[in-house]
Amino acid sequence: ESAQCFAHEITTPILRCFSDEDDYSAPGPERTIRGYKACEAFYNVAKVIRRGVLQDMESVFDGLCKLYTDVEQTIKEGAQSLDRLVRDIVVEQRRFDYSTLIPLIAARIHVLNPSVRQLVLGWIVLLDSLPQVDMIAFLPHYLEGLFGILASDNRDFRMQAAGRARATIAWHRGLRGT
Q1: What is the pTM of this model?
Q2: What domain of life is recorded for the organism (predicted)?
């Protein structure tokens, strides 16, 4: 519990490592090791302080987006593990303000990088699956980006986006009784 009081002080330096341009300017094994170690460090901290990592969700989400775009597969895999953990932490919080995630999603849904689109679609699917989150109310924030993904060359993303659009339409029809 006392770690919660220091969550910001613990997580901020690690989050900075996700976007440290000096560390990521030259490809190579040293950069890969630093990137993976930063991801691993944040994962380990998140396992311990759980809800404390959500105090700065914008930086966490931004860091995940940066890690997802890395060219090194080991860093991407670490980012995916970290993303799953952060999602679990978000879901287990009873008083989490889910509306704080919508601007983060809306800002990144237009990013053309397929890995970031995968991350964003995953968060939309997660939030849509939670009964306490009314994604229809937030639809104007991310619908245009969802249509952009529907026009994507990537078949998997089109299928995921189409599934979200169909689910939204079906829910809306069910609500209106048509």
Answers
A1: 0.84
A2: Eukaryota
